[in-house]
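R.M. (postdoc): so does anyone remember the format we settled on? I'll just put the structure tokens first.
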């Protein structure tokens, strides 16, 4: 395959449909996140069956990750067999850069055990199934274009705000991976390079350290003592989470709102750079943090309009993802099914 997947190729009409020859196929899709490992069986219509969710092993040994994927595949296979169905492929999305041609994981700051591992070869040897390995945010972008917010678009950027900030870029109907599979890493572009916080990737001031769940929690903990009136002070430090911060903000807590608006400002800086560089129709915001979309999106739009060229900024919509946690799973399935 080339460095990008074409959605409108002769054997694949669009991200909304798959060739009739794949009608009876289903895929075990696995989303290996920095926090959770999720899996499901998905058919060519995008119907999701047999959901599973486990904690991602906190291990530096790649064998522990491979064992976890093999375990959840066995569960998916067993459930599919009970319905009289079979699995034709395993498709795994990972939170990092992947060399698509080889399946080698080039970079994965939140799951470092898999770096420099040829996951495709290792899993094919263990499972005897064809295996596809893809970046999680690339897969989420495909999922949103197949079954989500970007169904009628051809040029989009999908930002996934979770443990980190992932991003997937689709240009003129083609998933863009770059020459080495590291293209589109917008979460690791600098939005505060001179006075910023160091990121796990080694850079300074990356979008990820401000707009991810981890970044939002870090900013809150760093400044909470300066806001004694915030109701967030009534929450035990161990229980503090982005969900609690969002709940406080929705109740009118000014500090909670300030944190999400700060994250929105940094997102808007990144969005302006996206608009000026790629001129997309849409920027889709997904991931767990997107549940607080209404708290940060207005500031992100404001910052984008302030910094981007007016015409492409007016055209580009910033919208909330529709597929939720299923976006990566759906994209993983589509990519495996469309490969044939």
């Amino acid at each position: 395959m080339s460095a990008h997947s074409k959605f409108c190729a002769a054997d694949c009409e669009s991200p909304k449909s798959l060739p009739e020859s794949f009608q009876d196929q289903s895929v075990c899709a696995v989303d290996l996140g920095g926090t959770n490992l999720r899996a499901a069986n998905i058919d060519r219509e995008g119907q999701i069956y047999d959901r599973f969710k486990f904690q991602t092993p906190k291990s530096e040994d790649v064998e522990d990750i491979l064992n976890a994927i093999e375990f959840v595949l066995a569960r998916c296979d067993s459930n599919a067999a009970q319905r009289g169905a079979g699995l034709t492929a395993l498709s795994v999305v990972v939170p990092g850069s992947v060399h698509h041609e080889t399946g080698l994981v080039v970079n994965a700051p939140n799951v470092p055990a898999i770096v420099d591992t040829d996951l495709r070869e290792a899993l094919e040897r263990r499972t005897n199934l064809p295996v596809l390995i893809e970046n999680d945010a690339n897969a989420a972008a495909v999922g949103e274009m197949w079954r989500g917010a970007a169904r009628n678009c051809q040029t989009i950027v999908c930002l996934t705000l979770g443990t980190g900030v992932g991003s997937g870029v689709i240009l003129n109907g083609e998933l863009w991976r770059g020459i080495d599979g590291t293209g589109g890493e917008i979460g690791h572009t600098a939005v505060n390079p001179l006075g910023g916080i160091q990121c796990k990737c080694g850079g300074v001031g990356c979008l990820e350290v401000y707009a991810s769940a981890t970044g939002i929690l870090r900013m809150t903990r760093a400044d909470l003592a300066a806001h004694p009136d915030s109701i967030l002070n009534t929450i035990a430090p161990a229980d503090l989470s982005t969900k609690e911060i969002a709940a406080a903000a929705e109740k009118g807590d000014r500090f909670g709102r300030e944190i999400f608006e700060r994250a929105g400002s940094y997102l808007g800086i990144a969005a302006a750079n996206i608009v000026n560089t790629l001129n997309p129709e849409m920027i889709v915001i997904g991931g767990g943090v997107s549940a607080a979309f209404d708290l940060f999106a207005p500031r992100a739009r404001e910052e984008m309009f302030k910094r981007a060229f007016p015409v492409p900024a007016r055209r580009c919509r910033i919208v909330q993802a529709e597929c939720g946690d299923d976006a990566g799973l759906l994209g993983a399935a589509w990519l495996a099914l469309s490969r044939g």
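R.M.: ...and that's the designed sequence above, right after the tokens. Also worth knowing: Residues 151-321 form a domain with the Nucleotidyltransferase; domain 5 fold (CATH 3.30.420.40). Residues 1-23 have pLDDT under 50 and may be disordered.
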